Amino acid sequence: MLRLRDLVQRSVPPRNSPLYSGIWQRAGYKTQPGPQVTEQPGLARFSTAEATVQTGAGHPGRMREKSLTMASLSPQVKAVEYAVRGPIVIRAGDIERRLQQGVKESFTEVIKANIGDAHAMGQQPITFLRQVVALCCYPELLQSPAFPEDAKQRARRILQGCGGQSLGSYSASQGVDCIRQHVAEYITERDQGVPSDWNNIYLTTGASDGIMSILKLLVSGEGSGRTGVMIPIPQYPLYSAALSELDAVHINYYLDEENCWALDIEELQRAYLSAKQHCQPRALCIINPGNPTGQVQSKKCIEEVLHFAYEENLLVMADEVYQDNVYSADCQFHSFKKVLYEMGLEYFSNVELVSFHSTSKGYTGECGFRGGYMEVLNMDPQVKDQLVKLLSVRLCPPVPGQAAMDVIVNPPREHEPSYAQFIKEKSSVLDVLAQKARLTEQILNSVPGIKCNPVQGAMYAFPRIFIPPRAIQEAKARSMAPDMLYCLKLLEETGICVVPGSGFGQKEGTYHFRMTILPSPEKLTVLLGKLKEFHLRFLEEYSQEEAQSSSRHREEAQQPD
Amino acid sequence: MLRLRDLVQRSVPPRNSPLYSGIWQRAGYKTQPGPQVTEQPGLARFSTAEATVQTGAGHPGRMREKSLTMASLSPQVKAVEYAVRGPIVIRAGDIERRLQQGVKESFTEVIKANIGDAHAMGQQPITFLRQVVALCCYPELLQSPAFPEDAKQRARRILQGCGGQSLGSYSASQGVDCIRQHVAEYITERDQGVPSDWNNIYLTTGASDGIMSILKLLVSGEGSGRTGVMIPIPQYPLYSAALSELDAVHINYYLDEENCWALDIEELQRAYLSAKQHCQPRALCIINPGNPTGQVQSKKCIEEVLHFAYEENLLVMADEVYQDNVYSADCQFHSFKKVLYEMGLEYFSNVELVSFHSTSKGYTGECGFRGGYMEVLNMDPQVKDQLVKLLSVRLCPPVPGQAAMDVIVNPPREHEPSYAQFIKEKSSVLDVLAQKARLTEQILNSVPGIKCNPVQGAMYAFPRIFIPPRAIQEAKARSMAPDMLYCLKLLEETGICVVPGSGFGQKEGTYHFRMTILPSPEKLTVLLGKLKEFHLRFLEEYSQEEAQSSSRHREEAQQPD
């Protein structure tokens, strides 16, 4: 095999070589040095507009200026931040590779509690879902007695909906028709009869893709007419990243940490009124159950939010991907759609509402399949056509992910052969998650300087941490957020990877981190134990230094000049 | 089940109801009518910024102004056009549904020759690929004697690369490491030893996603500093759609129809120099083999293009998704990477080149899996970090699509059990495609008023059609492009769905359509026969009308006043 070092360096053909000179001459380029031309060794770079010649980097093999540099990079891309896979996680990858290479650390593995990636943390796939997708992928298996009849029936139905009965065909841009119909039936059942029209269902590449598509539609205007989108703080950073990418105004409304991260309607109004001064608020994003905050919204709160959106004519984006992840006995998931319906026809026929769901969360945790759907209510029909047009440029969501979504919305029924195993697996996942939610909250709250709201739902704890002033100073000196310093030290001392609260947004002067509750109960107990030790050590370290430093100051002060 | 019509209409709680009044009062809203308040029946809409009240649509259930309308929609989204799934295809869907409902037409089925969707046209999946993906989806099958050992070995390797050994885990944003390594090895082998570094490989959600990501990085500036991107005309409309979405300048360079759609370097320079006046050209897109044009570029032409990109410091985006689809005996696929390498180190170490590939084309046609990769050469390392950050917001490409890509780059080897069947299937698909390419070109060229360049590669014919002036007039009167009228009539009279050339771009005054060569040889023969009949009828109809209309004019002129 050839290697770079074996490359015979060839110089570029001279501008007047037979290969190029004709071309350049015909195009009006000068191929002979003239008054405007400064000859330099090696290559010359033409600035064609002026038909003069600038000198390039010169010698063969030497680097020269690039077309795409940090200076020329899209400023919107530059502005994007996404902490869930940010610097801490990149550092965790480095440490992991070091460990694999045999480098000794005070820990033997990196535990990635940074991302809601259930299978990576050992959660087992739901058998029925994987059977259906495998049957769709390789329909020869439909002849195999090893697969249950209900899984085969699902797979046959999905394949009938695919061009050429193959998962390898593009689906319609909105997704496979019969899967969209199953989604609509599922929503109707979930919402106890509130009607759902499959023409309002769009399958997506995970929920992120749907959220991004809706935001794309919304963003327009300049100056004080620029689109603003209301997002919770703390938020899942997809929202802020998408708004940065689209150059829309982020309108932050703060969740009430003192009140279990509840959404306070007055705060919503404050944020809205203040934003109105300099932009055009057009949409309101809500994450329920909350990410990273884990709260489950009350029906009353949802009513207030919808009323507010109605009054202010805001499109509501309800991120409901954790709708199956509710753990507290005194909480219940209320869909925005159902609450809107119950508020009466004036609301139900007017408020523009888009609800998002995903295969990645719930009890399936199928993140890698990139499946999801959105239900779009009361959208202007012409705008819906524009949405379909926009989606069609990307052709279609991945069809295996659509098939996975189909299983979630059309699971085995009581009379079917796979029902018992399906329910057992589903309950087991959700029961263990509920157990881990309690465990996490309890242990975190047992640590002095950590305070964690109940993890009512979703997959995360977002505890508030006390960071001593000395540590804050050090972080400032190192140009990082104080909770970034905390998380970095946690990672480097224990191998535990969590995400600083600053990546999600938080009230000025408060510090948090987000950790998933996904590791196995045993591992999670160990993790929380190590975290507790670390936190105490951290407090001690920075208080000690402070004490030492103060006493040093005192000593210095007592010494004679 | 509840239905909309069963809904008890409830009016919205009055603004001074216990539910809301407190909230609104605290927020500074007036809940009692005052001087600024005009009371109207039904609902009032607050304009909170001014704390005055405007009247809403009034009565419960009545529609009122929406937040998201055609007027407020993103102008970039509005500007997007994507003919491959445009009006003709939407119309085809309508007709298809009518046929399903038993409505009689002069044809019994709609033949969708609009999109490169091989499986939908009956192409069978490659067994080995589907076996590997099914094994990854449902690893219990690894125990089954029905699967060959080489497929199991591939699946085990892929699963080892996945978190928790599950296809359901998020992969790294760039894709699964071992698959990226296989891609790099594949490229090195394809390019006869030219080195490929897997750190430069990014797995993508089809090629479209990769192309979009690179364009996102590139777009910046305002006025004459706005990023321009050079695209071929005719082009695959993803490019124009993406540039519209990103609000970048389209710099069109015309392929030379008289010369088998060759890329003419002088035309490239003309387009560049002219664009330089009003924008900042930053990148050059090439599709080779061509879509929709089917040409395969010569090595000399690629050298010239790369030299041009070098001179003008343009990032080269090489869309090489049809690299396995070359049919003409006198053509050969040359990768931009290999040609760049052979031009010498000065080029190879400087030109920023991104090459795209996909699972959707070639001999696999796995469109639904949305798999692909890009290889990124000479990109600024900091910009690469920004690319990874951008990709990470979408978390990862679909992992089943990554697994499908793995099979393409790591197919069965000669000594392996699946080799014989794999080669048989692969050759069969490619041989039949080559046969259909010739068939299409021959039949089209036998029709008076149609002229088709050789289909050297890819999956499409893009014939030039003569449209009589009378038809052009009618199209203008109906506010549509003449070839849109042609394609619409073709669809409505024969059920054949092709895409007007105007959706891809074409020289002013010329007309084309794009059709795929994907239907089975039998179906394709029938399709081309019907197309021929239609075309002759179309010519006759519009010449006759013209003749009739002329003779009517003559008669009228001859009548006494």
TrEMBL record, chains A, B:
PANTHER family, A to Z: ALANINE AMINOTRANSFERASE (PTHR11751), ALANINE AMINOTRANSFERASE 2 (PTHR11751:SF311)
Name of the protein in its database record: alanine transaminase
Family affiliation: Belongs to the class-I pyridoxal-phosphate-dependent aminotransferase family. Alanine aminotransferase subfamily.
One Pfam family it belongs to: Aminotran_1_2
Catalytic reaction annotation: L-alanine + 2-oxoglutarate = pyruvate + L-glutamate
Pathway: Amino-acid degradation; L-alanine degradation via transaminase pathway; pyruvate from L-alanine: step 1/1
Domain of life: Eukaryota
Entry's EC annotation: 2.6.1.2
Cofactor entry: pyridoxal 5'-phosphate
A single cellular component GO annotation: cytoplasm
Domain named Aminotransferase class I/classII large: residues: 149-530
Enzyme class, broadest EC rank: transferase
Subunit-level organization: Homodimer.
GO molecular function ontology, one term from the record: L-alanine:2-oxoglutarate aminotransferase activity
Keyword terms, alphabetized: Aminotransferase, Pyridoxal phosphate, Transferase
Biological role stated in the UniProt entry: Catalyzes the reversible transamination between alanine and 2-oxoglutarate to form pyruvate and glutamate.
